[in-house]
Design a protein that fits this description.
alpha+beta; GYD domain-containing protein; Alpha-Beta Plaits; GYD/TTHA1554; 33% strand; 4 helices
């Protein structure tokens, strides 16, 4: 299972509807299942990013389709990072030769 970390900023539209942010988070979790993606963790943060989401997916295409669908709603813009466990990184390093 691949892990992704989405560093998310609220758009002006998302900020105007900030009181609905926890309800939208529930909708995001439900939508994730339709893409075969799991929202493992979701945090509201202070600083450069407003929300940080940890996502797990069997494949990158499903994770990407999910992320694009969320952005299309217009409330957020995200920078998504592929994250690796220690075991996965060990596999990567072993392939270096």
């Amino acid at each position: 299972m691949a892990t992704f970390i989405a560093l998310t900023r609220l758009t002006d539209q998302g900020m105007r509807a900030i009181k609905d942010t926890t309800q939208r988070a529930q909708s995001v979790r439900a939508l994730a299942g339709k893409f075969g993606v799991k929202v493992k963790d979701l945090y509201w943060t202070l600083g450069q990013y407003d929300i940080v989401v940890v996502i797990e997916s069997d494949d990158e295409l499903s994770a990407t389709a999910f992320a694009v669908s969320i952005s299309a709603a217009g409330n957020t813009r995200s920078e998504t990072l592929r994250a690796f466990t220690s075991e996965e990184m060990g596999t990567v390093l072993a392939r270096m030769g």
